[in-house]
Amino acid sequence: MSQSEGVFVQVPGSAVDWRQAPAGAEDVEGCPWAGCKQLLRKVGLRPTRQRLLLGWILFSKGDRHVTAEMLFEEAVKAKLPVSLATVYNTLHQFTQVGLLREIGVAGPKAFFDTNPSAHHHFLIEGEEALLDIPENAEVVLESPPTPPEGYEIARVDVVVRLRRTAAPV
Amino acid sequence: MSQSEGVFVQVPGSAVDWRQAPAGAEDVEGCPWAGCKQLLRKVGLRPTRQRLLLGWILFSKGDRHVTAEMLFEEAVKAKLPVSLATVYNTLHQFTQVGLLREIGVAGPKAFFDTNPSAHHHFLIEGEEALLDIPENAEVVLESPPTPPEGYEIARVDVVVRLRRTAAPV
DNA sequence: TTAGATGCAAATGGTTTGCATGCGT
DNA sequence: ACGCATGCAAACCATTTGCATCTAA
């Protein structure tokens, strides 16, 4: 379990940092394919072509917040033969195994965050854009509220909605 | 701005507490219809039969979190001739004028909160149920994060996701 | 070879819209 | 009477599903 403390992606206990590819892994265009393959195996997903490339698109560019459609378009641009349905499937599968985190806040479309660790978001009102709230400005709950009987806190989501300042000068 | 510290509903500056009906208002089945009528006028909405009754359903039972469908069903039960489309319209109109607050967190369905003041929610995972986090257990952000240049904080939404405790004993 | 993954298209479910009719002012 | 509000149904959009085909193990 001793993974090198992440460069920018830190995954929670259960999940795996996909960059921990063995030293000799063959990288394709700067992407540790082998690591991805291995990662998928580790989480019990067969490393198929589309999962491999979708994983690459998702995780090779730092933290991102994508919708199914955004990912689909990128995959198409990347010449990957993939269907929208598969993108949805893959996103949910990745989420189930902890590689992604679903953010259910920005309107009708579901956003997926490539950083599955606990952190919060800015939401730009009007545009449907999400920004990570930087860790160093971390939001801390002063007094976690007591959950009702029989329930426990699974997770706390904080969304700071932003609007453009009235007079940008 | 000095409103009596709320019993349970506190409305923010811009909005109006619909219970501030004049003393002599004729109440219909315990509901200050006249107050509702007047409230609707105040916010620039014509007090039509459906808006009146929908408002009554929404606001006469304390704080609630409703979906369009829930409200529609109640309206039907209440023998109000109303269409689902009108329920949607009305919900959005009420939201625009600050009588309601939309909560965009519980899956694909939109929830509307009859308490438009700043407060946060428990979300029961699995069921699509929302609970207010009681004021006295208020969640406070320790260090409100600095928004990026050109933006200001419009609102902070906190959702505490709950799951059933593993062993309820 | 065989279970699992994918592609396509059709189905679904929530929400919105267009237009003719109704109702509040 | 005028104009916004409503009702209905069709349109829309994001997402899911069923099934035949394909592919990784």
Question: Can you describe this structure?
Answer:
The structure is a homodimer of 169-residue chains. Chain A is of the alpha+beta class. Helices cover 26% and strands 18% of the residues of chain A. Chain A contains four helices and six strands, in the order ααβααβββββ. In chain A, the strands form two sheets. Chain A has a three-stranded antiparallel sheet with strand order 1-3-2. In chain A, strands 5-4-6 form a three-stranded mixed sheet, with no helix packed on it. In chain A, α3 crosses α4 (84-96). The longest helix of chain A has 13 residues, at 84-96. Mean pLDDT of chain A is 77; it is low at 1-30. The interface between A and B is large, with 41 and 41 residues. β6 of chain A pairs antiparallel with β6 (151-164) of chain B. The structure holds a DNA duplex (25 and 25 nucleotides).
Short description:
Chain A has 169 residues and is of the alpha+beta class. The first copy, chain A, has helices spanning 33-42, 49-59, 68-77, 84-96; strands at 65-67, 101-103, 111-113, 121-124, 129-132, 151-164. The A-B interface holds A 104-108, 120, 122, 124-125, 131, 133-134, 137-148, 150-165, 168 and B 104-108, 120, 122, 124-125, 131, 133-134, 137-148, 150-165, 168.
